[in-house]
Amino acid sequence: MTSTIASRLADAGVQLPQAAAPAANYVSWVRFGNLLQTSGQLPLSDGKIAVAGKLGAGVSVEEGQAAARYCAINILAQAQAALGELESIGRLLKLTVFVASDAAFTDQHKVANGASDFLVQILGDRGRHARSAVGVPALPMDAAVEIEALFEIA
Question: Between 20 and 30 A from 120 (CA), which of 15, 55, 92, 110?
């Protein structure tokens, strides 16, 4: 894949939003040596939660995947804010995906694919990552999904 991250974003019809400011007493990202850790990103679109509720209780897997994709877009916005430009990303090392889930819902891994597939599309081989997908009873602001990321900086 020889195109740039910016060109792949444009091809996907995605314009990164301004990185969201922290909603409480934390920072949006931390850089330590050649590592960049983002705080959990919610499925925000135009500053509002795009997908709210619980998977298995009114929110479909497809809606959850869309929420995960919004989270991934917001992760890239944070990475851009931290690094100045996305070409500094060496590799996406790990995603931790939190899925607000009904007690009987067990397809968190399928929801997480909404972020994983998007990030591999945009980052290419640099986007192949380790991942955890965890069901939780609730997330901030009733978000359906929250995702944090760990990057290696080139």
Answer: 55
